[in-house]
Specification:
Layout: H1 3-11, H2 16-41, H3 43-50, H4 56-72, H5 74-88, H6 90-110, H7 114-121, H8 126-154, H9 162-189, H10 193-197, H11 206-223, H12 229-237, H13 244-249, H14 252-287, H15 292-306, H16 308-320, H17 322-348, H18 350-358, E1 361-365, H19 385-395, E2 401-404, E3 412-415, E4 418-421, H20 430-450, H21 464-482, H22 485-490, H23 498-514, H24 517-528, H25 536-552
Parallel strand pairs: 1-2
Antiparallel strand pairs: 1-3, 3-4
Helix pairs in contact: 2-6, 2-8, 2-9, 2-11, 3-4, 4-8, 4-23, 5-6, 5-8, 5-23, 6-8, 6-11, 8-9, 8-23, 9-15, 9-16, 14-15, 14-17, 14-21, 14-23, 14-25, 15-21, 16-17, 16-21, 17-18, 17-21, 17-25, 19-20
């Protein structure tokens, strides 16, 4: 690459064609993210509609697991559609992915609830089965979407401006998250809470049904695009890869780069992204008991303030490099997450913060009676006395310490001077178990309330300006790690295998390391009795990425992405 070309790339204005490419690619990807994250904001309603055979806590856990299913299959979508994109073209592949995504989302809004199918045909189980199938299709589609859009834009970008051009693609995840959050908030506040939450045909289905309009707009816009010039050139010269997956991952020289890209770039980027945006809302609503409207308002404002950071850090990466910005974001997240989430508690629910410090709670139990409170395949109901006690306390956002008791001891919960025996539900039938569990939950809940633990955050005591400051900080870290990452991945691989090779590490990082963050965090919290313990997961992964990236990832901002074609 000549210096003249590099200088021209930095100085000349964006052409009309380049603007169309960025707009069309970004807008379609915004709609894909809107579809994907819509599920997260309606998880409680999803749980009630499709898992109504279980209690409320189990419904929510199953809803989170179904949400995670979409993340689990994203790498497989990257393989399927990455191969297709390297064989037949970028444009046609992401037309297919957006169609699958849009139709799957629309059908979620039409799928009958568990109760509806159980009452009508005696097959209530079919409702969650359909839901899981649609969620898997969403994950597959998203696995093929991002790599295509990022590759397509990067191959249109002039030398020296790939970070800036692809950073517009990076804004799409946050904008899609913002759009889905906004639409849900508008619909929720336009009707009675019971009408929105209704398991049969409640208002929570409306945002899913609206996606059919977004699908039509996205397809129309993308049909206006032409194929990537780099792909057209390879096709005309007959130099396309005949086996892109084998070439990308069967050759150690390429597979090694993909592994390093995963561990040294995308894994840390993913946990900072999901920790700072998606989990931040879960933490406010489910743990701190902030009402959804207040949490959504704070998050929407923070996203509006910080979203420009994607483009800024993409632009900056063209000047100082991709690596220092991404790794700095990972390091800052790792060293500050515990402090920031403690501050979020302080500003969002000061009464809970005071109770956590002044009213310690203990669970005395036989260690062998305490299981890992996580069931990755679903269907397990925890009935030991220790598990029942811990689930009850975590549901009330109460920290506790675990004290070992002799074997065979029934677990006891101590709140201040009050002590309650849990119970062993193994020998009880379903009704007796539910009745005893409800009575135990009431006793513990009343006791922790007397000890100062609030049932919900007091809206009058929420320090909204400072809460927004904390969320803006988290969102800025997201823009640091995410803004330059598309350019960094594109520049690591040759054109003939670029779609496949960059998509897999990206979607393993974001689909597995990032997408599984909520259930992993919930598990760590339940296991330790500390509402902040789950943060050690994103902290650990971010530190790993910082170390691996610092040692093994090359700086690529000045690389000629066609030199190995």
């Amino acid at each position: 690459m000549s210096m003249a070309a590099h200088a021209d790339g930095h100085s000349r204005p964006m052409t009309g064609e380049e603007k169309r490419v960025i707009f069309a690619s970004s807008l379609g990807t915004v709609f894909e993210w809107y579809d994907f994250y819509l599920y997260g904001w309606t998880a409680a309603q999803i749980g009630a509609a499709f898992y109504s055979a279980f209690d409320a806590n189990t419904q929510f856990i199953f809803a989170l697991l179904t949400f995670s299913a979409g993340f689990l299959v994203r790498p497989f979508g990257a393989l399927v559609f990455g191969r297709l994109g390297d064989l037949v073209g970028r444009k046609y592949t992401f037309l297919v992915t957006i169609t699958i995504m849009g139709l799957s989302t629309f059908l979620v809004g039409l799928t009958p609830s568990y109760k509806t199918l159980q009452d009508s045909i005696g097959m209530g189980w079919l409702a969650p089965a359909i839901l899981i199938g649609l969620r898997l299709l969403q994950g597959l589609a998203l696995g093929g979407e991002y790599g295509g859009a990022a590759t397509y834009v990067a191959e249109h970008a002039p030398p020296g401006r790939r970070g800036f051009y692809t950073s517009w693609i990076q804004t799409t995840a946050t904008i899609g998250l913002f759009m889905s959050l906004l639409v849900v908030a508008i619909v929720r506040n336009s009707m009675a809470p019971a009408d929105f939450a209704s398991a049969t045909w409640g208002g929570w289905r409306i945002p899913y049904l609206l996606s059919i309009i977004l699908l039509g707009i996205s397809i129309w816009i993308r049909l206006q695009l032409s194929e990537s010039p780099a792909f057209q050139k390879m096709k005309s010269e007959g130099t396309l890869s005949k086996a892109p997956l084998s070439e990308a991952f069967g050759k150690w020289s390429n597979a090694k780069i993909a592994i390093l890209a995963l561990l040294g770039l995308t894994a840390g980027q993913a946990v900072i992204w999901y920790g700072g945006q998606f989990y931040a809302r879960i933490f406010m609503v489910n743990t701190l008991k902030v009402d959804a409207n207040s949490a959504d308002t704070a998050l929407i404002i923070a996203l509006l303030i910080a979203t420009g950071g994607f483009v800024f850090f993409g632009w900056l990466s063209d000047r100082i490099g991709r690596k220092p910005i991404i790794l700095a974001g990972c390091l800052l997240g790792a060293v500050s997450y515990q402090y920031v989430f403690h501050q979020i508690t302080h500003y969002a629910n000061p009464a809970l913060e005071a109770a956590l410090n002044s009213a310690p709670v203990t669970v005395t139990a036989d260690p062998t009676d305490c299981n890992v409170l996580f069931d990755p395949v679903g269907g397990k109901v925890f009935k030991s006395s220790c598990d029942i006690a811990r689930q009850t306390l975590i549901g009330a956002s109460v920290n506790y310490s675990l004290i070992d008791a002799p074997k065979g001891t029934v677990a006891k919960v101590k709140v201040g001077a009050k002590e309650f025996d849990s119970f062993n539900g193994e020998a009880l039938d379903a009704k007796a178990f539910a009745d005893q569990r409800a009575a135990f939950i009431k006793s513990v809940t009343d006791s922790v309330k007397e000890a100062g633990y609030p049932a919900a955050a007091d809206p009058a005591k929420i320090n909204m300006p400072m809460l927004i400051v904390m969320l803006v900080y988290l969102a800025i870290l997201v823009t640091m790690v995410y803004g330059p990452v598309a350019a960094a991945l594109v520049e690591l691989f040759p054109t003939r295998i670029r779609y496949s090779a960059m998509s897999l590490p990206y979607h393993i990082g974001n689909g597995w390391f990032g997408g599984l963050l909520p259930p992993i965090v919930v598990t760590l919290v339940a296991a330790t009795g500390d509402i902040y313990a789950g943060l050690w997961y994103p902290i650990g992964v971010a530190l790993m990425t910082f170390v691996v990236g610092l040692i093994f990832i090359p700086e690529t901002k000045d690389r000629d992405i066609y030199s190995n074609d």
